[in-house]
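Field reference: sequence -> structure
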Amino acid sequence: MASYEYVGNLHIHTPYSDGAEYHAEIAEAALLVGLDFLVFTDHNVWLDGIEGYYGDEDRGFVLLLSGEEVHDRARNPQCNHVLVYQAEKEMAPHAHTLSALLNAVYQTGGMSFIAHPDDRAVDWLHEPAIPWLDRSVDGFTGLEIWNYMSRFKDHIQTRRDAVRGIFRPEEVVIGPSPLTLALWDELLSENRKVVGIGNADAHGTVYHFGPITHTVFTYDFLFSSVNTHLLTKSPLNGDLEHDRLQLYQALRQGRAFIGYDIPGSTRGFRYSGQGQNVSVVMGESIRLGHGVTLQALAPARSHIKIIRYGEVVAEETNVENLTHVVREPGAYRTEVWRSFHGVERAWILSNPIYVEPNPTRLRA
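Structure field:
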């Protein structure tokens, strides 16, 4: 089945919570770097009336959608942030417990993603930690595997590190938190389908160092860094309702990968599974059988890994494609790493292909 790739960011803030710029200005930044869609997620506020296409024939168009980042304001610390999509109404009143919020989102037909699950504090900046603490809950759609701004906090734990990081972030950023990747693998090993996404968490952050004021994390910079690529089953056609549904269906099913574009464009990556008379893409399932093969195709030569529950089952360096013949069921995801500024960095992280047990083979 054909798939159509669209690139966007699903975690963006405006002055309606704690962002620096409004929707039109942020849309201009997205057009500058060539994004296809944006989902605005201000804290505990869902905005109606902002959805639609922005742009023109000369510069192109970007689709603006409305989501929400929800947490319990009364809780200290204010952890357990959840990105909510497709609920189409305000969800903050349900945030008194995480389980209540997840259930309320489910009842609307929406999706819930645990945001920055392993977020750390930066004590010298008086930045608190806002991780996912209530880990016994279920019922969420997925995890924010790579939150650019949250992960950046790991690289500025001292003032000395911050001087380098703030002014040359492309040199210090390596990839998502290993803790979050391990968490994802753990959840997948429990036979749970957990969709992974990657985002900017864009605020237009301004940093002050004495007399120096520097807006290093502009929206256009962040939109050229970590994004989520969605593979829709039919092309977007400019109709808001049709296109919103296509994007959200791809997101819900995990037909998606995370791309970090600083080392090079990640557009065109594909990860598929082939069996007898069947072909699937990331996020989909295939039944274990003779000759079931997984294939990752990267946009350039790189270090490709196929991973099952945290274990690397296939790996090659300096290649554009990697194949693996599957011999046991499980959730198989891919990581693609690429050298940039002399350091190998995470470039692409796919959602898994789910290889299901074959009942016929089990009976045999």
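Note: Residues 1 and 9 are 25 Å apart (CA to CA).
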